[in-house]
């Protein structure tokens, strides 16, 4: 596969930093290599920023804030819609870039691009409604004074995203940040910077004023850490691993910044004996193998009620053997490679540890031998509940199954994790579905449904999976500051107001 052939002619591959409305090399002139995970070949070299570039980008965002924060909701909405239309116009190119850089099958990449468009359109609608809402009066127990509450942009915000859903995780932060009137320094993953650089080009064409959005490619230590530490950054919105999220929080503490964190997961799917087992097998397979299992929301812990356990495992095994793993651009391919070598090696270690811990390997699917970071979809049963396979986020195409005997046991085992991002319940008993959903410590619960996420709803989890929520009005609420203004009523004499005798 020749990457160059995939880039439609006339649209250059962006490889520089986007700061203050200009494309420029990193100050130190350094570059980093971007690799195609299907071939292990270099796709491009992009600028590798460091603390000096971070400072330039933050200063540009701080300057741009002066006018951007005073724009109307309607003006921001118009820009957000222009971005959505720009993404739409380059749908095919963006999907190809996603598949090339991340390794996901083209159909999945197209779904991601659709999600990005829907997110910008949704926050355009919310931005529009801001002009109507304005400052709101608050009823207070005083006839002398009246109080108003208004929401104002927090300032320059740092948005830091991972490599598993490039552009989607970005859109979930960028659209509400712009709607709220903040200016942005965005740091994509060093592993998948190409889609975000293309998005920057779309923002530029859509007419986003210079400095309002700045995009810095580079590593976590050289860009992410100084960005979080920068004194002019007001808030940080981070999606990534729990370990790095904790580091971000510690760094942000030095300058007392607010943080929004979307971190790891180890989610459960619970299949009751009354479930439609064909549906259950489809939901389990999708929850484990979509995006090659590289999902924070992967439902990689499968809990099945004992009477139907063998039947479900048999259906899963059949699906595992049928998954076509290969070149994400090839017709019929359902699963691509993992996105980078580090993740590939990590997943192989988990599989070896699972075998050593006594988990029963039911079946491994097939995958190309390489080059490329291809991993066979893998199904374990009887996975010990204290094994790393059961307890840690694998972030690869590995499903672990355990049986349960009672509803109470299923809920207890599902909740027995430090994470709490999502869960799925499969049952034909509607009352049980609702009851179990209420008991689960998870920010999102799907009942008999695939992992659909609508921008109008919410995203985020309990425990170590998240701080805050993205999407819906909650995603917007992350970016403004709240201001109270208290004033005397005109009829109240000054002496009375300040309490003079
Ligand atoms: P990661 O934590 O290694 O990196 C995420 C981002 O943080 C990257 O841009 C990286 O360069 C940057 N970074 C690294 N060190 C930093 C530091 N010290 N300061 C600031 N930034 C730093 O995560 P990853 O491997 O890219 O992504 C996989 C993880 O992301 C998984 O744990 C997954 O569950 C999680 N994730 C969560 C969600 C969610 O919505 N909860 C969504 C997608 C991915």
Layout: helices, strands, pairs:
Elements lengths: L2 H4 L10 E3 L2 E3 L6 E6 L4 E7 L3 H18 L4 H17 L1 H12 L3 H28 L2 E3 L6 E9 L2 E5 L7 H12 L3 E5 L6 H13 L6 E3 L4 H10 L3 E7 L2 H13 L3 E5 L5 E4 L5 H13 L11 E5 L3 H14 L18 H16 L3 E5 L13 E4 L6 H4 L6 E7 L2 H9 L3 E2 L1 E5 L3 H10 L4 E4 L14 E2 L2 E2 L4 H6 L2 E9 L5 H4 L4
Parallel strand pairs: 7-8, 7-10, 8-9, 10-11, 12-13, 12-18, 13-16, 15-16, 18-19
Antiparallel strand pairs: 1-2, 3-4, 5-6, 6-22, 11-21, 14-15, 17-20
Bound molecules: nicotinamide-adenine-dinucleotide.
Description:
The chain has helices at 3-6, 51-68, 73-89, 91-102, 106-133, 168-179, 194-206, 220-229, 242-254, 277-289, 309-322, 341-356, 388-391, 407-415, 430-439, 472-477, 494-497; strands spanning 17-19, 22-24, 31-36, 41-47, 136-138, 145-153, 156-160, 183-187, 213-215, 233-239, 258-262, 268-271, 301-305, 360-364, 378-381, 398-404, 419-420, 422-426, 444-447, 462-463, 466-467, 480-488. Helix 4 (91-102) runs antiparallel to helix 7 (194-206) and helix 5 (106-133) runs parallel beside helix 6 (168-179). It is of the alpha/beta class and 501 residues long. The radius of gyration is 24 Å and the shape is globular. It is 41% helix and 21% strand. It folds into two domains: 16-263 and 465-484, Aldehyde Dehydrogenase, Chain A, domain 1; 268-447, Aldehyde Dehydrogenase, Chain A, domain 2, CATH 3.40.309.10. The strands form six sheets. The chain has a seven-stranded mixed β-sheet with strand order 14-15-16-13-12-18-19, with helices on both faces. Strands 9-8-7-10-11-21 form a six-stranded mixed β-sheet, with helices on both faces. The structure holds nicotinamide-adenine-dinucleotide. Nicotinamide-adenine-dinucleotide binds at residues 160-165, 169, 187, 189-190, 219-221, 224-225, 228, 239-241, 244, 247-248, 262-265, 296, 393, 395, 421, 465. The site of nicotinamide-adenine-dinucleotide (NAD) has 31 residues, from helix 8 and helix 9. Pfam families: Aldedh. Keywords: NAD, Oxidoreductase. Pathway: Amine and polyamine biosynthesis; betaine biosynthesis via choline pathway; betaine from betaine aldehyde: step 1/1. Residues 23-485 form the Aldehyde dehydrogenase domain. Belongs to the aldehyde dehydrogenase family.
């Amino acid at each position: 596969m020749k990457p160059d052939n995939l880039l439609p002619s006339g649209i250059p591959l962006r490889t520089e930093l986007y700061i203050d409305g200009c494309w420029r090399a990193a100050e130190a002139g350094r570059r980093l290599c971007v690799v195609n995970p299907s071939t292990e070949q270099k796709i491009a070299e992009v600028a590798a920023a460091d603390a000096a570039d971070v400072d330039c980008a933050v200063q540009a965002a701080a300057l741009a804030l002066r006018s951007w924060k005073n724009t109307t909701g309607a003006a921001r909405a118009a820009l957000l819609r222009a971005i959505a239309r720009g993404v739409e116009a380059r749908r095919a190119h963006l999907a190809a870039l996603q598949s090339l850089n991340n390794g996901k099958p083209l159909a999945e990449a197209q779904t991601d691009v659709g999600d990005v468009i829907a997110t910008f359109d949704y926050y355009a609608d919310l931005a529009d409604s801001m002009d109507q809402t304005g400052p709101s009066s608050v009823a207070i127990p005083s006839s002398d004074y009246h109080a108003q509450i208004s929401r104002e942009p927090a300032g320059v915000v740092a948005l830091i995203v991972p490599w598993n859903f490039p552009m989607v995780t970005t859109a979930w932060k960028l659209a509400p940040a712009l709607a709220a009137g903040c200016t942005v320094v965005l740091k994509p993953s060093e592993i998948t910077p190409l889609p975000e650089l293309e998005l920057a080009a779309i923002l530029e064409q859509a007419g986003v004023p210079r400095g309002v959005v700045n995009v810095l490619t580079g590593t976590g230590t050289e860009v992410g850490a100084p960005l979080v530490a920068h004194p002019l950054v007001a808030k940080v919105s981070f999606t990534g691993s729990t370990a790095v999220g904790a580091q971000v929080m510690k760094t942000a503490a030095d300058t007392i910044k607010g943080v929004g964190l979307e971190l790891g997961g180890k989610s459960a799917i619970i299949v009751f004996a009354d479930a439609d087992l064909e549906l259950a097998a489809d939901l389990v397979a999708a929850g484990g193998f979509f995006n090659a299992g590289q999902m924070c929301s992967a439902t990689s812990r499968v809990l099945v009620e004992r009477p139907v356990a063998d039947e479900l495992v048999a259906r899963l095994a059949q699906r595992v053997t049928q998954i076509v793993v290969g070149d994400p651009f090839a017709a019929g391919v359902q699963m691509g490679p993992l996105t980078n070598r580090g993740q590939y090696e990590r997943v192989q270690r988990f599989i070896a540890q699972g075998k050593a811990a006594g988990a029963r390997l039911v079946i491994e699917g097939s995958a190309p031998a390489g080059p490329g970071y291809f991993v066979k979809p893998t199904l374990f049963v009887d996975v010990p509940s204290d094994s790393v396979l059961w307890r840690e986020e694998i972030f690869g195409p590995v499903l672990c199954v355990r049986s349960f005997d009672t509803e109470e046991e299923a809920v207890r085992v599902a909740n027995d994790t430090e994470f709490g991002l999502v869960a799925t319940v499969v049952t034909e008993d509607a009352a049980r579905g609702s009851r179990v959903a209420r008991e689960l410590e998870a920010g999102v619960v799907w009942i008999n449904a695939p992992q659909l996420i609508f921008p109008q709803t919410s995203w985020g989890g309990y425990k170590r999976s998240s701080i805050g929520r993205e999407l819906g009005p909650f995603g917007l609420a992350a970016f403004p500051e709240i201001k109270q203004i208290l004033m005397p009523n005109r009829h109240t004499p000054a002496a009375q107001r300040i309490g003079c005798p």
